[in-house]
Amino acid sequence: MAKDFSTRAENYSQWYNDLVIKADLAENSAVRGCMVIKPYGYAIWEKIQATLDQMFKATGHSNAYFPIFIPKSFFSREASHVEGFAKECAVVTHYRLKASPDGKGVVVDEDAKLEEELIVRPTSETIIWDTYKNWIKSYRDLPILINQWANVVRWEMRTRLFLRTTEFLWQEGHTAHATNEEAVKESETMLDVYAKFAEEWMAVPVLQGTKTASERFAGAIDTYAVEALMQDGKALQAGTSHFLGQNFAKAFDVKFLTRENQLEYVWSTSWGVSTRLIGALIMAHSDDNGLVLPPKLAPIQVVIVPVFKNQEQLDLIREHVIPMKKTIEDKGITVKFDDRDTHKPGWKFAEYEFKGVPVRITIGPRDIEQGTVEVARRDTLEKEVFQMIDIGNKISHLLVQIQQNLFQKALNFRENNTFRVDTWNEFKNVLENKGGFIYAHWDGTSETEDKIKEETKATIRVIPLNNPRENGKCVYSGRPSTQRVVFARAY
Amino acid sequence: MAKDFSTRAENYSQWYNDLVIKADLAENSAVRGCMVIKPYGYAIWEKIQATLDQMFKATGHSNAYFPIFIPKSFFSREASHVEGFAKECAVVTHYRLKASPDGKGVVVDEDAKLEEELIVRPTSETIIWDTYKNWIKSYRDLPILINQWANVVRWEMRTRLFLRTTEFLWQEGHTAHATNEEAVKESETMLDVYAKFAEEWMAVPVLQGTKTASERFAGAIDTYAVEALMQDGKALQAGTSHFLGQNFAKAFDVKFLTRENQLEYVWSTSWGVSTRLIGALIMAHSDDNGLVLPPKLAPIQVVIVPVFKNQEQLDLIREHVIPMKKTIEDKGITVKFDDRDTHKPGWKFAEYEFKGVPVRITIGPRDIEQGTVEVARRDTLEKEVFQMIDIGNKISHLLVQIQQNLFQKALNFRENNTFRVDTWNEFKNVLENKGGFIYAHWDGTSETEDKIKEETKATIRVIPLNNPRENGKCVYSGRPSTQRVVFARAY
Question: Domain A12-93+120-285: which topology?
Answer without folding.
Answer: BirA Bifunctional Protein; domain 2 (3.30.930)
